[in-house]
Amino acid sequence: MKYYLAIDIGASSGRHIVGWLEENEIKTEEVYRFHNGVEEKDGHLIWEVGHLLEEVKTGIAIAKQKYKIESLSIDTWGVDYVLIKDDEEVCPVYAYRDARTERVIEEVHSLIPFEELYEHTGCQFQPFNTIYQLYDDKKQGRLEDVTDFLMIPEYLLYKLTGVKKKEFTNATTTGMIDHETLKFDEGIIERLGLPKHLFKQLYQPGEMLGEYEGIKAVLCATHDTGSAVEGIPMEGNELYISSGTWSLLGVRTEKPITDVDSMKANYSNEGGVSYNRYQKNIMGMWIVNELQKELCPDEKISDIVLKAEESAYDEVLDANHDSLLAPSSMKQAFDDLLSVKPENAYDYFRCAFKSLALSYKKAIEELEHNTGRTYAKLYIVGGGARNQFLNRLTEEYTGKKVIALPIEATALGNLRIQMRSN
């Protein structure tokens, strides 16, 4: 029996999951889980990557105590990265929710209008896209003498193996990949005045990296949504939502769709394992988690959902509103967007769930118009798949058959890629 280790790190937690094949089915065991989250330092939001690396190593050690691990791989959220001078990290490592890019977005678009960027890359606009972060680094002098920039999972794998390799699916979250050549767009890099030597060869999921303590290290689809889509046991090609901090709603397509309608609807084209993911970022469980921290931190989310279902509050808001990205108070951010103030905590949650379901409805209508196809089913995976009230609202508003699978789809996809490469 061969055992594989998927290390799946999200914006709020990380998990080490061992998987193996048994009668053509992947069996799994979670062997370690740890907390993750942004830290505030000197007025900025940052990642403590040293902490992440130590947690990664701790989980590997625990997995080795129980199993003989054949290989491992790491996936995380996209967009964020670590700058390196030879072998030294450039700190701080900024988190995507930090507001630093607000000062450069207009300048980037004056050099390359967003319409042109989208035509080249098919990457949706988000103020935290890597392209804006790197340009801010340039303006702040942080790129001087930098030899590498590695996305977070690439950096963690490098620290384990000593090998620096850039992976394709995560690179497509940067807003800098030419959707035709599937390489870094040299024209964009040149016009922004970024150091060309940072944008190196891209490798596909399944690439072998090296070893860590006798365990082979492999590149999975290191962007967690890329692995999640690989992990969905889908019949045919249907809609999906990877429901976590963000709700990533999309469908697999043969090639990117970069027309004006897709740009206006802010749809993104990101790399999959031999296919394109045509998808949209929706604020997701972030707004729910932040409300819970603020309004009822000691209450189980399952109890909160039941009480939200009993609420009669009927107003909704735009779940993708910019003010919800990183507010100091999520409750206040809701109050500012609503005309009728909720009477109790559970009114806020009912509003959040209804608003998310309606945002799914709108996104699906846009997707079906832009792809010219109608879909019958919507697969929901990730933590949000456990929310039966939200699932029911989603089915009601979208008219799609919701198939909610509260499975670790990201870890399953990570494991499948490893199993195919060994």
Which CATH C-level class of the largest domain is it? Answer: Alpha Beta
* CATH topology (fold) name of the largest domain: Nucleotidyltransferase, domain 5
Helix content: 25-40%
Overall morphology: globular
Strand line-up across the major sheet: 3-2-1-6-14-13
Q: What would you give as the CATH superfamily of the largest domain?
A: ATPase, nucleotide binding domain
What is the distance, rounded to the nearest whole angstrom, between the alpha carbons of the first and last residues?
Answer: 13 Å
Sheet-strand content, in percent, reads 15-25%
Sheet bearing the most strands, described? 6 strands, mixed
Number of helices: 15
Return Rg in Å.
Answer: 21 Å
Mean pLDDT: 96
List the uncertain runs.
Answer: none
Count of discrete structural domains: 2
Structural category: alpha/beta
Architecture per CATH nomenclature, i.e. the level-2 architecture of the largest domain: 2-Layer Sandwich
| Count of beta strands | 20
Explain the overall architecture:
Helices cover 37% and strands 24% of the residues. The chain has 15 helices and 20 strands. The strands form 5 sheets. It has a 6-stranded mixed sheet. 47% of the residues are buried.
Task: Name the features.
Nucleotidyltransferase, domain 5; 2 domains; globular; single chain; 422 residues; alpha/beta; 15 helices
